[in-house]
Specification:
This protein has about 55 residues and is mainly α. It contains 2 helices and no strands. It comes from Larkinella insperata.
Length: about 55
């Protein structure tokens, strides 16, 4: 069984949204799907290259 998705409000600059819409269209995704894809890829990259520990 697939995990349920959680909805939330996203406030975004109109120009950024336009760029996301263009990018999503180029890759045959919805804007929501494109945002999920970008976040998923960023999290995978972060796991491969974790940020250095902070010593505050």
């Amino acid at each position: 069984m697939a995990a349920e998705k959680k909805a939330f409000v996203l406030r975004i600059n109109p120009e950024t949204l336009k760029e996301l819409e263009r990018w999503a269209q180029e890759e045959f995704r919805s804007v929501n799907g494109q945002i999920e894809f970008i976040l998923h890829e960023a999290l995978k990259k972060r796991k491969k290259n974790p940020p250095p520990e902070r010593n505050d």
